[in-house]
Amino acid sequence: MFVLWLAVTVAFIALEVHTGAFYALFVAVGAVAAAITALVGGSLWFQGVLFALLTVGGLSLVRPWLRARFDRSVPVAKFRGIQASADGLVGQPAMTVDTVGDEHHPGHALFAGEHWLAVTDALEPLPAQLPVVVVAVRGTTLLVRPTS
């Protein structure tokens, strides 16, 4: 049974590394505890109960605290690919990379070191290399306006 618990541990650690959502982490912790119990000769039912208690306990007691702490410590614009909320993007400066038009003629804006699809609600398209501000986020598209 030790090998099975070890395989579950490795699988859920790999899953946690790819998601970063703090769900699989607690399954892996429960599996480690069950594997150690199996290694020292604990019964199968005790392994299962220990696994369940640590997994459910971690998810319900530790995960909310850990998630809240992580969300507060990660600034949106500092890390590539991480968007905590669209509200954190609104009001931030960007720079048009090419001509940015309406929704039928989108362009690109450089925001936080990344190229984003961008549109504007201005009457005329915005030229390249124009400083803009993000006024809304629509999916993965920024709505931008020229800075005043």
Tags for this model:
alpha+beta; OB fold (Dihydrolipoamide Acetyltransferase, E2P); 2 domains; 5 strands; 20% strand; rod-shaped
Question: How would you concisely characterize the structure shown here?
Answer:
It is built from three helices and five strands.
Q: Can you describe this structure?
A:
The chain has 148 residues and is an alpha+beta fold. The chain folds into two domains: 2-73, no CATH class; 86-146, Nucleic acid-binding proteins (OB fold (Dihydrolipoamide Acetyltransferase, E2P)). It is built from three helices and five strands. It has helices at 2-19, 24-39, 44-73, and strands spanning 93-96, 107-111, 114-120, 131-138, 141-146. The chain has a five-stranded mixed barrel with strand order 1-2-3-5-4. Helix 2 (24-39) packs antiparallel against helix 3 (44-73). The radius of gyration is 23 Å and the shape is rod-shaped. The model is unreliable at 74-84 (pLDDT under 50).
List the helices and strands and how they pair.
Layout: H1 2-19, H2 24-39, H3 44-73, E1 93-96, E2 107-111, E3 114-120, E4 131-138, E5 141-146
Parallel strand pairs: 3-5
Antiparallel strand pairs: 1-2, 1-4, 2-3, 4-5
Helix pairs in contact: 1-2, 2-3
